[in-house]
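Standup notes
- DV: blocked on the single-chain target, sequence here:
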Amino acid sequence: MKARPAIHDDLKALQRLVQAGKLFAVQDWIKAGKPLRLPDGNQPKTSALYAAVETGFHSLVEELLRAGGWSAPELSAALELARERRRFDLAELLGQRGARPKPMDFETSCDKLDLFMMEQQLRAGTNPNDGNVFAQVLDSKKARPLLGFFRQFRAEFPALEDQAALALAAAVKNRQVRWVALLAWAGADPFRPVPNSLDETFPVDPDDCTTAAREAAWINNPEILKVLHLKPTPAQALDLLSSLSYRHDAKFFQHLLAIIPRDLINDTPRASSKVLESLVGQYPHRNFITNVPDEKANAENLQCLELLLNAGARWNPPPEDHRSARRNLLGHDPRYIVQLLRLLLYTPDAANLESFLELCHSQTLKAKIATVDAPLIQELQALRKTRRAVSGGDASANTEKAPVAVADTPSA
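- DV (later): unblocked, structure below
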């Protein structure tokens, strides 16, 4: 019974040597056969091994492990400390000597920024897309080590690409410019389809998803667009145009059009442009507080529409869309209506004649047109007569294209 205090005093002396980083003295201690731990065990966090991990001295930890005799709780406590200190070299060394981590789920590992355990869990088959754990932690912690982890393992575990892209879309929505820039630097793909929120799941529905690039186009924040460094393919540029059809930025619109070949502009089975259909059938922009028309936004809508037509876009929507397009067009002021109709009418090969006449098939619409552009009413009447004559005389001669008006009537 009297021997235990002496052993305890010896262990205190060993602790002091370890804490001072005296490697050679510890080696001499081990060679002399002096005790490293109490026979019935220590509290794990009071062991010399734990103290060695606290110092971060790799050779000292290695020497104590080589001596052996450490209990499972002591090894586990030392391993947990090594991971907390982000000393993954020590964690690996302890693992090789039999240290086993406490049970921990992937969410906890991510929350603790335990990169060692995260890697082990991914290798054991954990899917980061389950619960969007990695994206959630990227969004909440915004920690650089997570970006490094993503860069290191993205090729080996492709689901991390989904998670980084989802976190990027969330950062764009929240207008977190600095974090957007860091995620983009790490390689998060702004064009990768992701769920509409962090709470929705993978795999995504192609018809109900988003991308960080779409969100950036929608909020139209110059700083975010700048740090994203968007370099879309033609197909991606065409997809972005759809987002811009609601938030007009004529300069960005023109930039995207320069990327898209003319043969891709008309992307529907009817050889029509979905973006042009959206612009033609767009409801008037209004201030959501005062309900006053937003003249600037409406003018930019026309500007984007003209850019599309000049790029070769055609307007030939499905028949079931005519009514809603006409109803929305009626919400605009007469001058806007006339400008839009003349753009469609005077741009060569731009509009399907039957669809164009159906769009204009409204007495209310004609009354609005007549207040600012009576000649256009006459042109519409002439087109209808021509259409009836062609339809009644020779159906095979029926054309789907609106002819360019012969008279050079100035638009209102």
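- Follow-up: Confidence is low (pLDDT under 50) at residues 1-7, 395-400, 404-412.
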